[in-house]
């Protein structure tokens, strides 16, 4: 992982934490907030690995496609964590 990827991971982690720690709703629990942060970090790591390993080898795997994959993985992981913790 390059320094640039580490900076992005750190920034996204801090951003995720700041978003879930805002008192947006009384329905947000500490466990739910933690699940969102973990899901976001896992999706960012997956995007970094895919970007570093296979993105340059394929013509169709653009940054837009990578963003869709990352968002889909984060949403799926967050929902899985929510179902597991409920």
Structural write-up:
The structure is a single chain. The chain is mostly helical. The chain has one domain (about 5-85). Helices cover about 75% and strands about 0% of the residues. The protein has 3 helices and no strands. The chain has helices at about 5-20, 30-55, 65-85. Helix 1 packs antiparallel against helix 2 (about 30-55). The longest helix has 24 residues, at about 30-55. The mean pLDDT is about 80.
What is the rounded distance between the termini?
35 Å
**Count of individual beta strands:** 0
Structural class, please? mainly alpha
Number of helices: 3
Summed over residues and divided by their number, the pLDDT gives a mean of: 79
Number of domains: 1
Short description:
The chain is mainly α and 86 residues long.
Write the layout of secondary structure elements.
Layout: H1 3-21, H2 30-53, H3 63-85
Helix pairs in contact: 1-2, 2-3
Please name the defining characteristics of this protein.
single chain, 86 residues, mainly alpha, 77% helix
